[in-house]
Design a protein that fits this description.
By secondary structure, the protein is α/β, with parallel strands linked by helices. The protein has helices at residues 10-20, 35-45, 61-67, 85-90, 103-119; strands at residues 2-6, 27-32, 49-52, 74-79, 95-98. The protein is built from 5 helices and 5 strands, in the order βαβαβαβαβα. Strands 2-1-3-4-5 form a 5-stranded parallel sheet, with helices on both faces.
């Protein structure tokens, strides 16, 4: 699964990259530092998964989702702000992880992603 890390903080991206190294089915195809950068990289790299910060210079992560064209990848928010969680789920976020990201919460979020992917071709549950 191709993932794009979107966060204006280099240290946060590096830590997430470190945590994701243990998950061999997740391939980090790029990093973006703001909404404009993320839109360009999404168009070029076609990620399956976004790890998306909320607060970034210029525009927030929600603005990215509003401007996204085409099929939206799975989104896991990674942010230091718990007050945006309800809004994140209104955008159908797969999960909402608070920084610093707890490795166990990351595992749980990735399990949701894997379960969703494996159920995708099996039709709807009764």
């Amino acid at each position: 699964m191709k993932a794009l890390l979107i966060d204006d903080e280099r240290l946060a991206r590096n830590e997430l990259r470190r945590l994701l190294a243990a998950h061999h089915d997740i391939e980090i195809v790029g990093e973006a530092v703001d909404v404009e950068d993320a839109l360009e990289k999404c168009a070029a790299l076609k990620p399956d998964l976004l790890f998306l910060d909320v607060q970034m210079p210029g525009a927030d992560g929600f603005a990215l989702l509003e401007r996204f064209e085409g099929s939206l990848p799975a989104v896991i928010f990674t942010t230091a702000y718990d007050e945006f969680a309800v809004k994140a789920f209104e955008f159908n976020a797969l999960d909402y992880l608070l920084k610093p990201v707890d490795p166990n919460r990351l595992v749980a979020a990735l399990e949701k992603l894997r379960l969703r992917g494996s159920a995708g071709g099996e039709g709807e549950a009764a």
